[in-house]
User: Fold this.
Amino acid sequence: MNVLVIGSGGREHAIAWKLAQSSLVETVYVAPGNAGTSLEPGVVNVHYETNEHDQLLQFAKDNVQFTIVGPEDPLVEGIVDLFDEARLPCIGPTRIAAQLEGSKIFAKEFLDRYLIPTASYNVYEEAEPAIEWVKNNPATWVIKADGLAAGKGVTVASTEEEAIDAINKWIPKGKIIIEECLIGQEASFICLVDGKYALPLATSQDHKARDANDQGPNTGGMGAYSPAPIITEPVHRRIMREIVHRTMHGFKQEGIVYKGFLYVGLMIDDKGSPRVLEYNCRLGDPETQPILMRLESALADLCLAALAGKLKGYPIRWDKRSALGVVMASKDYPGEYKKGDPISGLNNMVFRTVSRKGLIGSKDIKVFHAGTVEINDKVCTDGGRVLCVTALGEAIGPAQNTAYEGVKQIWWPGVFYRPDIGNKAFKLY
Assistant:
């Protein structure tokens, strides 16, 4: 069987890598892919962009048994609806369901309708009343753009000036939400949904801020680890009962048939109470990388079970070890950044497994590519988030040590990364 993965980031590299390990899978096609996916045995890049829906549809019709949509943009644009109309199996929500990610207002109203715990909020279409609210209600506020912003449309404003700057930045692009700032630890809770049943995957924690100690601007994610110690068994049960089950009830009530990955971004307070920060309608990036490092079940089998509506009772298996990924980024990310710098160190002996083009990873450490491209047979930078070095370990600490040992082997001009991915897992909550 052949499978198509749509996307070009680290998440898609991890998905393709995991799919290719299945005995059921002959070839994994990635559209458009990156330099890392081109190195993988059993993986072939196809040069269609994620917005070329008709071409992707035709390619899938001619070549594959099912498709996984990685990024949010084609989901919100309705690519799954197109595949459904053609009766082509596709992992991902329809356009209406993807509004849970595509519109933060849609998501907040959905949360309210089904009594799912979240932060209080106000919606604004104009800057003046939003600024007036901030001036009359001094606090730490979260300013969110309504639409997609690649994980960067959120500002945590601790001063009036920061709040006003964020309002003026996002209002010209559409509606905004001003939300109370929740206190606690963030965690990612991802399920695979088969239309009726939500199968929880391994828990994880992302690091959104660019700089150490959660300072600096918001990003698409600078690193992640799995499992998330903050999600204890009691907290896990509460998440399923108070959030996931109510979300599934909401889908049923509104006639939404959801088949795909459902990401719930959570804030968990010191009493273990979870509240929803956001929905994403796909796997997280960089959470996917450590999660799939730990997945022992065949990803292809899981996807087929989801498409067939047979996830209830599915015996999903996980490596008991921890996994941690460190994102290596281009200088000045998430602002303007340079492309085209050659990357050195990818063939270091730390990364021991041999592929057709070089050394790309061992059983316990893997370099997942995100913003990379091949230029004259050299792997070069081609994005803000360039690589995610991901490692397994008996606990978060050993996984962290191994990942950073890998990071130290890799270099290009201006490369930077957070030095503290995983440190919050060591702190008593």
Observations:
- The two ends are 46 Å apart (CA to CA).
- The first helix runs from residue 10 to 19.
- The chain has a mean pLDDT of 93.
